C-alpha cells in the first residue's frame, strides 16, 4: 500500500492533523479547536453513554471527560482498521487506562451493543464526533448510534414494565411451568407459504374481504384482540397469539365458542389463557430482563426439549406476533390492523371487545362516550402519518409510537419480505402495498408454489419426563429462597459477596421494586423488604396454579 493510501499524521501551524483518502481529517489551521468546542457544548449529564465515533488524535476527549456526569462512560469506536491502529498509537498517556474510557475497533453494530452491556447501564446515548474521520463511515456510525439508543430505551421500558407487572409475570411463569405437563405443549407449526398478521386496529376492517378472498393461499396469524372481528367476518385464524399477563384479555376469546384454534401464548401469559382456547398449545418465552432466574428457566426448557421460541421483550402483542411470524413462514408476509393509531371515536375494528362493550352501553342519547374518552386520553397526539382519505386526522400516543418503532426494527431485520397493507398509520418499516397489488403478488406466489399454506406440526417432550423435571426445578427454587432467608435472618454467617449472589439468583423477588437497581448495594432497607417477598414466594411455590 502506498503512503498516499495510508493515514498519516501531518504538522500544521496549529498542531498535528491527519490526512487520509486525499483529505484532512481536522482543520489545518487549528486542529484541536473544533473538537474541544464540540466537547464543551455536549450534553454530559449523569449516566450518559458518550459515543465518540473515530476519536483519531483524541482532541476534545479530556474536556469531555472533565464535564462527564457521574456514571457516564465514553465509548470510542473506530470502524477503519488503519485509523484504529493510528488512534491507539496516538492515545495520550494514561487515557485508555481511565475507567470512564473504552476503545473498540468494530464495524459490527451488535458487537457495540454487547460491549455497552459490559460497560454498565446508561440513561441515554449521546453521539459526539470529535474528528472528520466520523464522516468516512457515516451510515455505519448512524446505525450504531440508533441501535445503542434503541437498546438503552428498550432496557428502561423493560424496567418500567417490570416495576408494574414483575410480580404478576413471575407468578404466571411459575404457575405455567407447573402446568406444562398437562398442557401438552407442541412445537410451532411451519407455514409453507404466505401469511398475514392481523391486529385489531380499524384497518383490519378494510383488509378482511381481501383476506377472505385469498384464504386458500394465505395463512392468518391473529393477535388475541383481533379474534372477534375475524370470526365475525367468517375467518378462522391458523394461529392466535396471546401475550397478556393479566386476566382482562380473556374477553378476547369469548367469540370462539367451541371452535378449535391453535394458541401461541407466552410463558408469562395469564394461566387461564391456555384453557380459554381449544386446540394445540404453542409456547413462547420472552426474556423479560437480564435475569439469573430466567437463565435457569431457559436452561430448564433446553433440558426438557420444550419446543418454545425465545423472544425479546417487545411489550406489544402485535410486534410480538410479527416476530413470531417471521420465524414461521418463508413469506411474503403482510401486516394489517397493526395501526398504532386510531380515529377519533374509534380505537379498534368492529367486533373487538372494546367496541362490543361500547355497543352494550349505548343509549339513544348516549353513544360511544367511552370510545371518545379513549381517543382523547392524556398524551394523545396527532399521529405522524397522512390523514385518512376523507381528511380526518389519525391520533396516537407515545406508547403506540414506541411500538411502531419496535415494528420498524422487526421489519428491517433479516427475514422474509414484509408488506404493509394497512393503508394508514405510522411507518412500520414494511413496504406499503395496496390490496390490489397484494392480491396480484399472492397470485404470482401461488403460481410459483402451488399448494396453499400447508402446516407442518411438531411435537413436544413426553409429559411424564416433563413433570419430574418441573417438580425438581420448583423445589430447587424453593431451596434457594430458604437459603436466602436463612442468611437474611442471621441464622447463617456468610460474606457480602455470597449474600449478593444469593439475592441476584432470585432476582424475581424484587422485579417489582421501583429501586430494583439498588439490589447490589445490599442496603438494609432494601433487604428488609426482601424478607416478606421470600415468605410470599415460598408459599406460592408450595401451591403453584392460578
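^ C-alpha cells above, recovered residues below v
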Amino acid at each position: 500500500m502506498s503512503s498516499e493510501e495510508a493515514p498519516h499524521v501531518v504538522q500544521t501551524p496549529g498542531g498535528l492533523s491527519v490526512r487520509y483518502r486525499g483529505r484532512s481529517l481536522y482543520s489545518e489551521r487549528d486542529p484541536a479547536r473544533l473538537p474541544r468546542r464540540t466537547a464543551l457544548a455536549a450534553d454530559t449529564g449523569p449516566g450518559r453513554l458518550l459515543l465518540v465515533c473515530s476519536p483519531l488524535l483524541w482532541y476534545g476527549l479530556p474536556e469531555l471527560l472533565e464535564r462527564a456526569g457521574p456514571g457516564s462512560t465514553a465509548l470510542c469506536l473506530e470502524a477503519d482498521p488503519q485509523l484504529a491502529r493510528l488512534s491507539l498509537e496516538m492515545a495520550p498517556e494514561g487515557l485508555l487506562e481511565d475507567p470512564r474510557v473504552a476503545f473498540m475497533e468494530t464495524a459490527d453494530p451488535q458487537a457495540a451493543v454487547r460491549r455497552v452491556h459490559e460497560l454498565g447501564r446508561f440513561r441515554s446515548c449521546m453521539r459526539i464526533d470529535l474528528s472528520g474521520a466520523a464522516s468516512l463511515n457515516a451510515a455505519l456510525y448512524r446505525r450504531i448510534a440508533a441501535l445503542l439508543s434503541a437498546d438503552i430505551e428498550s432496557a428502561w421500558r423493560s424496567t418500567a414494565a417490570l416495576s408494574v407487572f414483575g410480580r404478576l409475570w413471575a407468578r404466571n411463569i411459575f404457575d405455567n411451568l407447573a402446568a406444562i405437563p398437562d398442557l401438552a405443549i407442541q412445537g410451532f407449526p411451519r407455514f409453507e407459504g404466505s401469511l398475514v398478521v392481523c391486529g385489531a386496529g380499524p384497518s383490519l376492517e378494510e383488509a378482511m374481504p381481501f383476506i377472505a378472498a385469498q384464504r386458500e393461499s394465505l395463512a392468518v396469524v391473529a393477535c388475541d384482540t383481533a379474534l372477534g372481528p375475524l370470526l365475525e367476518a367468517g375467518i378462522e385464524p391458523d394461529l392466535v397469539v396471546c401475550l397478556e399477563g393479566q386476566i382482562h384479555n380473556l374477553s378476547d376469546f369469548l367469540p370462539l365458542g367451541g371452535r378449535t384454534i391453535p394458541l401461541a401464548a407466552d410463558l408469562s401469559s395469564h394461566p387461564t389463557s391456555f384453557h380459554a382456547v381449544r386446540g394445540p398449545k404453542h409456547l413462547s418465552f420472552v426474556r423479560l430482563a437480564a435475569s439469573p432466574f430466567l437463565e435457569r428457566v431457559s436452561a430448564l426448557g433446553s433440558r426438557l426439549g420444550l419446543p418454545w421460541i425465545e423472544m425479546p421483550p417487545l411489550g406489544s402483542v402485535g410486534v410480538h406476533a410479527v416476530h413470531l411470524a417471521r420465524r414461521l413462514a418463508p413469506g411474503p408476509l403482510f401486516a394489517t390492523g397493526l395501526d398504532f393509531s386510531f380515529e377519533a371515536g374509534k380505537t379498534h375494528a368492529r367486533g373487538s371487545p372494546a367496541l362490543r362493550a361500547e355497543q352494550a352501553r349505548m343509549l339513544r342519547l348516549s353513544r360511544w362516550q367511552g370510545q371518545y374518552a379513549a381517543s382523547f386520553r392524556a398524551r394523545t397526539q396527532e399521529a405522524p402519518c397522512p390523514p385518512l382519505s376523507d381528511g380526518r386526522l389519525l391520533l396516537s400516543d407515545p406508547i403506540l409510537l414506541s411500538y411502531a418503532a419496535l415494528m420498524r426494527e422487526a421489519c428491517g431485520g433479516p427475514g422474509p419480505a414484509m408488506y404493509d397493507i394497512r393503508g394508514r398509520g405510522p411507518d412500520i418499516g414494511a413496504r406499503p402495498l395496496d390490496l390490489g397489488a397484494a392480491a396480484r403478488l399472492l397470485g404470482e406466489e401461488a403460481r410459483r408454489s402451488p399448494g396453499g399454506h400447508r402446516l407442518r406440526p411438531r411435537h413436544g417432550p413426553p409429559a411424564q419426563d416433563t413433570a419430574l423435571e418441573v417438580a425438581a426445578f420448583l423445589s430447587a427454587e424453593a431451596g434457594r429462597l430458604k437459603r436466602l432467608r436463612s442468611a437474611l435472618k442471621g441464622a447463617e454467617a456468610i460474606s457480602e459477596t455470597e449474600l449478593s449472589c444469593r439475592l441476584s439468583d432470585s432476582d424475581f423477588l424484587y422485579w417489582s421494586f421501583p429501586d430494583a437497581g439498588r439490589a447490589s448495594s445490599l442496603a438494609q432497607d432494601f433487604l428488609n423488604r426482601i424478607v416478606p417477598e421470600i415468605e410470599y414466594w415460598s408459599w406460592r411455590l408450595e401451591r403453584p396454579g392460578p
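The longest strand covers residues 15-20.
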